[in-house]
Each structure stands twice: as C-alpha cells, then as structure tokens.
C-alpha cells in the first residue's frame, strides 16, 4: 500500500513509502517472545532483503531471559536478531546491488557525523544504531523477520554457492577476524583462546588462517572444548 511522507528538511521533500506485511519474531518482555505479523515501510532509497537464515546471539537470549541485554532494556516490542543473511528483493535505482543477489547484512549504522566517524573510526561511533538492539528508544528492529529494510551500504554480497547457514556466521566471524588482527603477527606462534563459545571457536579458525602454529583453548564446558578440538585446538 503506497503512501507519502514529508521529511522535515530545509527544502520540501516528498518521499513515497511502501509497506510490506510479513512475519517476524518480536521480544515483548522477559520470557515473552512472539511470532507476529507486522508491517514494514521502505522507500525508493532502501534495499529490501528476504531473510534466508540467522544466528542467535547471546544478546538475543538475554532479551528473552531478562527483557534486557546489559543496559539495553526493552521498552516496547522489538524484532530481535542481528546475525543474518538473505536475498535482495528490491534495490534503489542506480545501485550496484542486484535483485536476487545473496548478501550478508551489516547490522550497524554509524551516524557518519561525529568525531570518530569523520576520522574513519565508524566502529567507535557513539551514536551507533544496531539492529536488534534496545539501546535507544525507539529500538532498532533486527533481522528475525521474513523481510528487512536496510541501507545499500549495509549489504555485503557473497557467492550464492555458499550455504546461507554458513554465511549466517559472517557477523560473529568478523568479530573474530578483528580480534586476530588486533593480536598482530601470528605466523608460527602459539595462540591461547580463553573461552570456547561461538566467538572463541571462530577466533581459533581465524588464528589458524592467520598462520598460528598451535592453538590452545580453555573452557569449563566439555561440549565447548570438544567443538574447539574440532576447530583445531589442543
């Protein structure tokens, strides 16, 4: 259903908005997560992605168990999830992206105006909006939805031959790769990873790819340690 909205700018601008009705997973409160039908809006400047697969992060579990993730407290229903991939169903005119393209979605949106952003450190933006986060009110809806609306710059194309359930690890893998890069040159070195959960095991994989000669993992969970061994740790 098309509609128009006037944006509050110095020059009068009318942008046509359209709506999509789809199902999504929303956290309402502690121990209250619902699968509901909802409407999402998109403009001619947005990318619409049909979600194919997503991973459950610890923060998603916290929103379910406690109605909060750290200092981010649910104040209204919010679509959870920020580790997801999908297929593009709509692109803006003139975009390098294509309908039918498989993409991983970067869940973060920096302001691009603060000191950190202007110095090239968008990852340290103090006003970062993160999909599936209740840090700000209104909250930013996440990716556990049939469709999501994102900016073109949030879309990272990948080879469609790679299974979606593998590419759903792209966001936590990016965290692991960042950690390995911060560790410096690892070629021929022994690496200890403390904590063999999903991020820890992905760090093992990233460290091995970076040339580490020996990988050691520590954890209290036998299940996690077994997975770490499968990832090459001793």
UniProtKB/TrEMBL annotation:
Single annotated GO MF: metal ion binding
Cofactors demanded by this protein: Zn(2+)
One Pfam match: ADH_N
InterPro entries linked: ADH-like_N, GroES-like_sf, NAD(P)-bd_dom_sf
SUPFAM superfamilies membership: GroES-like, NAD(P)-binding Rossmann-fold domains
The keyword DNA damage is annotated on this UniProt entry: no
Entry superkingdom: Bacteria
Annotated Alcohol dehydrogenase-like N-terminal domain residues: 44-158
The keyword Signal is annotated on this UniProt entry: no
Keyword terms of this UniProt record: Metal-binding, Oxidoreductase, Zinc
Family classification: Belongs to the zinc-containing alcohol dehydrogenase family.
PANTHER family from the UniProt entry: SORBITOL DEHYDROGENASE
Name by which UniProt lists this protein: L-idonate 5-dehydrogenase
Species whose genome carries this gene: Salmonella enterica subsp. enterica serovar Brancaster
